[in-house]
């Protein structure tokens, strides 16, 4: 073979792959080149594996026998490069022995088994770019060492579309005469007026060609490899030639940036090229990704506990006949099933081991260096993202028509009721329609509103990395500006530019408005909690008892009775604060009505004073809250915050399926939001909705069993619309803003920014919001955002008071009846005793009745107090005489 290749046998140990690597020996083959690209590829491979294991170099020369001997030593998977001459030998060995070969080399023709091809196919992007530039005549310079697959596809397409293609092989030129050959070649192209050239070569050969044509003006080159930035184009950067190409490694990707930082931190002695300022080439990136693929595959096999240990002479090509390895198919299947995110984007394979669902950036060389103008993927094909509407400034905008992408979302953009009677922009109305008109007026351009086709705001597919919605319209060059409720986020800012926010908002919770709670019979008790009422009752009883006790112990509460003539009744002391009088005093003070008796002692007055102070505060607080509780209709919400949502499972909750709200929960590191995202992602049926209208409808029909998470501005607007049955609960979960978006590098950005700032300073943005949110609201002034509504008192509010009044009156009548019956019975007994006494002694008609007072006093109501003498009756008269106290 023309090139010597080294074979490296790797024993993976330690870290996460310890168990898997102890039974797996991947091998690696590199073209032995002194060039920088070869060193970088080798260093990238060694760096990747050094994170997991040591490596052991084996043979340095590759022949059929040496390669075969390595199979015999237990190599289960091989990583390496090939060229046109070595590819057949390698594929033959791998196909026969069922050993997978992972390679970043050029894709092979047909469907090769046990070949995992890391390099995406460039045929699709190349044909799309030719069609974009509308080339129908061009020269095609190719390197035969890379294979002829791409050339054959170009020639077939040229035959179908009648292109004129001049194919020239530059791969067989001798090194000592290559410069002269290149100059002669381009002189012939100049004579034939062939100024459109495709260079299907690797970067080292592209560099040699460009060094000879750097002064040739008026040419347009397409470099047909995946490393446009890898080459040194500084010599022709300021010339007249146009240069386009493709880039598989996106250096703006955080994953690539992180790798660059680790790469530059390495020692150059151990990893040649690592410590330099040279960026990692696309072949080195493919090498790094290939190791990641092998790592994931063997990790999967280890988790599945698949035994891929060599037995007997399985996989030994020295055996006669050669015996394929039985477990080779399992390893190949595991490799093809790997789906990871690498330096070259999404890595995924089809059943034939070829890359699928990948994206390639389209590049152009400008005066300020390489610039991305779009990208290509298998779904949308060629997508141009650069804005050529305005070159460098906004002069002459009045003659341009700007495509404004937006989305039908009330109240931002809505179709008028009689939209069929209008055309173009006149068919729409709403906040963003008015805003777009103001922006166009301030910037001085004409515009055309265009509703986004898929009805989405914009999110990137995790697998294909393709943007949809309005963001996709800007990224793929289908629109020049987006005026819509488009949230400013980091992932969007990476691919498009935003103006200053024209509206601030946050994620909020929408639920179905609960039914207004009917006031209870005893709603007048609501101003104070149940516990407070219980404490008041116990305090009332406690104060009464304490007052009774201190009155008993204090000598100043005891006093003697005086008669009308001022004389003091001897041997008799009274105390007015018995237990019933104490209860009556406490009740009178609490009801703010007072009482005829008051404490005389200092201790009793202290008890009375603190009780009066207590009742003053309680009654004042109660009175202050009573009016609000009785005149306000309240709605009891089952959810008040995101915490309430997260800790329950009865009420489902979700977001828009494609938008910034979903992205917020997916990326959030806050425990609460991560818990909510885990629930939403696994909920069945799905809690995500395709449109906001669908989410609102689901809230209204769920009978309070579904909550919708959306921007607060939209939540407030919907709350203002009939049937007025939704409401916003809790505060905003985050803080963000809506911005006007433009493609990356668009000169419209500065003009739009200044227009937004000017409109904000003039107060026009607030006026527009009031116009479309509240002035056109359908749920009354103040919006439906109020959970309370003041109204006149109804009978149900104070029914309990009447019940207590009626109950008290009834209780009083019952007590009066009991007292009457009791007194009548006692009086009857007394009369009977008196009559019996008269029958015994008719001459003695005196009957004196007596009763004792509450505190032992003698009550004599039958005689006035002025009477002091009581008739004396001899004991032998046999009369039953009772004394009645007249005091």
Automatic annotation (TrEMBL):
Keywords attached to this entry: Cell membrane, Disulfide bond, Glycoprotein, Ion channel, Ion transport, Ligand-gated ion channel, Lipoprotein, Membrane, Palmitate, Phosphoprotein, Postsynaptic cell membrane, Receptor, Signal, Synapse, Transmembrane, Transmembrane helix, Transport
All residue ranges annotated as the Ionotropic glutamate receptor L-glutamate and glycine-binding domain in the record: 411-476
Binding-site residues for L-glutamate, renumbered to this chain: 485, 487, 492, 660-661, 711
Catalytic activity line of the entry: Ca(2+)(in) = Ca(2+)(out)
Record-annotated Ionotropic glutamate receptor C-terminal domain positions: 401-775
Cysteines paired by S-S bonds: 68-317, 724-779
Compartment annotation: Postsynaptic cell membrane
A biological-process GO annotation: cell surface receptor signaling pathway
Site (Crucial to convey clamshell closure to channel opening): residue numbering on this chain: 639
Regions crossing the membrane: 528-550, 610-632, 800-822
CDD domains assigned to the protein according to its UniProt record, in alphabetical order: PBP2_iGluR_AMPA
GO annotation, cellular component aspect: postsynaptic membrane
UniProt GO molecular function: transmitter-gated monoatomic ion channel activity
Pfam families reported for this sequence: ANF_receptor (PF01094), Lig_chan (PF00060), Lig_chan-Glu_bd (PF10613)
Keyword Phosphoprotein: yes
Keyword Acetylation recorded: no
Function: Receptor for glutamate that functions as a ligand-gated ion channel in the central nervous system and plays an important role in excitatory synaptic transmission. L-glutamate acts as an excitatory neurotransmitter at many synapses in the central nervous system.
Annotated PANTHER family: IONOTROPIC GLUTAMATE RECEPTOR
Family assignment from sequence similarity: Belongs to the glutamate-gated ion channel (TC 1.A.10.1) family.
Record's protein name: Glutamate receptor
Source species: Dicentrarchus labrax (European seabass)
Gene designation per UniProt: gria2b
